[in-house]
Each structure stands twice: as structure tokens, then as C-alpha cells.
Amino acid sequence: MKIAIILCCLLVIQYVLTFIQVRYYRKSMDKIISRYKQKEGYYLFSGMERRQFRPGAIAMIVVNNEYMIQECYIVNGFSVLSKFKELEMYKGQHVGAVLDSVQVDSGDKKRKRKQMPAISAALAKAAESALLSISKKNISMG
User: What is the pLDDT of residues 47-100, one digit of tens each?
Assistant: First the structure.
């Protein structure tokens, strides 16, 4: 009986922590979106990498119509205390170049995504989404 109570408490704690983390994610996303609300041609993409026993990561990138990254934010860690940090090194770079550098940094290109660092995997997912979505939009408009 004690084990069932402990497991229920752990589930409730996990639910509360997840709620706090999702709320923080939405606030951060809304803050970024508000900066680009009046501007056309800018898109927000995010990528998330979850790991079972290692810290995961979430990447958010703002990309313009020409596939250039305007802003890049990364959160990495286990707890809800992890906060988004802006990565200046990707600012102004082409999404394809960032995707290529992330894959080169992770070593062998045949390595699975799970073997990449969580930050690189999350950034790769966001960059891939940006490339696909913007190219589809450009094809449908042109």
C-alpha cells in the first residue's frame, strides 16, 4: 500500500513539474513571437530531443524567408529550473549550414540521432523543420 501511495505522489509531482515546464516554454515562445508579430517573412521553429536517463534539450530558432537564422535559443537539462539561453553563434547563419555543422560536429554522419548530443539533435530537428516548411511555402507561392 505504501508503494502505491509513493508512486501516486511521484506521478503528481511529475505532473506539476511538467505543467510548470510547459508554461515556461509557452511564455518564452510568446515572448519571441511578440518581437516578430508585425513583421512578415519570419518563422519560429522548435525541435525537442528527449533522453531517458540523460538530459534532453529544446531548441527554438527564428528563421526568415531566406533561411537565415535571426535568433536561436536552447534549453538543456533535467529539471524545470533550466532556462532558455540564446546562442549567438548561429545568428545570421543559413539553416542548411547550421544543420550541416551540427551533423559534422556529432562525428560520423551515419550515427543515429540518439547518439548525438541532445542540443545538437534538437537543433537539427528545428533546422530540418525550417528547411522543409519554408521550401514548401516558397514552392506553393511560386
Answer: 998 887 888 889 999 999 899 999 999 998 877 778 899 989 999 999 999 888
Cell of 82: 533550466
Instruction: Classify residue 142 by burial, with Cβ atoms within 10 Å: 0-12, 13-18, 19+.
Output: exposed
| Cell numbers representing residue 14 in the block | 511529475
Residues whose CB is less than 8 angstroms from the CB of residue 103 and which lie 6 or more positions away in sequence, other chains included: 109, 120, 124
Counting every residue written for the chain, the total comes to: 142
* pTM given for the model: 0.79
- 62 three-state secondary structure: strand
CA triple 5-78-60, angle to 5 deg: 130
Residue with the three cell numbers 506539476: 16
Q: Which amino acid is at 71?
A: E
The three-class DSSP label of residue 96 is: helix
Beta strands in the chain (DSSP E): 42-49, 56-64, 69-77, 85-86
Q: Give the Cβ contact number of residue 32 at 10 Å.
A: 20
